[in-house]
Write a structure and sequence with these properties.
CATH topology: Arylamine N-acetyltransferase fold
Number of strands: 13
Strand order of the largest sheet: 5-4-3-2-9-8-7-6
Oligomer: single chain
CATH architecture: 2-Layer Sandwich
Order of helices and strands: HHEHHHEEEEEEEEHEEEEHH
Number of domains: 1
CATH class: Alpha Beta
């Protein structure tokens, strides 16, 4: 049954089954809420790819039921175990928040602005002792990055890294990724906890963004990052980039790199086409 938006609540403590499923699948044992345990969780959580295949299919299945589109922790972990799926920044961030909150960590989501627009990305801030750390499952950070002007850089691996720059005028942080050849701005955020109601509104709005007009996947692999947008694939390492057109072997390439079944990719493509047609029809009726 579809739950009305005004009664729907996002509470990370309400999803013990999803958290338990994650801990058991990755064979993690609970420890004290410290930096070592946080690093262990992030290392395993990075196995969940960034992908919108699952989101496109959910939108298609629940076109008239906004809250049913949300892939909550139980669904995310079940889909990963069964189909090697992951999620987009909202489902991944909320899942990670649930895992951390249920193991004694103090954390909260923050919204970020990207070139695509305001509040189009999200991440988590974790508080440990007297320090704060940025953890970003959407950008597949495998280790926490301390939010500290004196420690602005973090190497994701020996091949690539991220950098935070604090803007004293706007009181915001700029997030960059870098390799041997370039430094690239990704997003800007303020260290402001986003209330669950606001986070929910941004999550629901994301189903109408342009990012839902094509299939997108990302994962950390072989010391670098693999990015796929429709038939374009880019492999980024510290030494540079390699671009490949995978149009001729599209389904096979995604299965080989991400482990996602070819039939599921075909299902997402069909759902994508139907979603776009529905959107166009709705726009003509306005």
């Amino acid at each position: 049954m579809n739950q009305p938006i005004h009664t729907f609540q996002l509470d990370p403590l309400r999803h013990p089954d999803g958290v338990k499923g994650f801990m058991e699948f990755f064979r993690l044992r609970p420890k004290s809420a410290g930096l070592i345990f946080l690093q262990e969780i992030l290392q395993q959580f990075a196995s969940l790819p960034y992908e919108n295949i699952s989101k496109i299919i959910k939108l298609n299945q629940h076109w008239e039921s906004p809250t049913q589109r949300l892939r909550l922790p139980e669904v995310v972990v079940e889909d990963h175990i069964a189909y090697k799926l992951g999620g987009t920044c909202f489902s991944l961030t909320f899942f990670l928040q649930s895992i951390l909150a249920q193991h004694g960590f103090t954390c909260y989501p923050v919204m970020a602005d990207m070139r695509a627009g305001r509040n189009t990305h999200c991440a988590l801030v974790v508080m440990l002792d007297a320090a704060k750390y940025l953890v970003d499952p959407g950008y597949l950070l495998t280790q926490p990055m301390e939010i500290n002007p004196q420690k602005p850089r973090l190497f994701r691996t020996e091949f690539a890294g991220v950098e935070l720059r604090f803007d004293t005028q706007t009181r915001s942080y700029d997030f960059f990724t870098f390799n041997q050849n370039e430094l690239k701005w990704r997003y800007r955020f303020q260290d402001r906890p986003v209330p669950p109601e606001e986070f929910l509104q941004h999550w629901l709005a994301s189903f109408g963004w342009n990012s839902m007009h094509g299939i997108c996947l990302t994962r950390v692999m072989n010391g670098g990052m693999i990015y796929v947008r429709n038939t374009f694939m880019r492999e980024t390492t510290f030494s540079g980039k390699r671009n490949v057109n995978i149009k001729k072997n599209y389904h096979a390439a995604i299965h080989e790199i991400f482990g996602i079944d070819e039939q599921l990719v075909e299902k997402a493509q069909a759902a994508l086409a139907e979603n776009l047609n529905r959107k166009k029809l709705a726009e003509t009726l306005i």
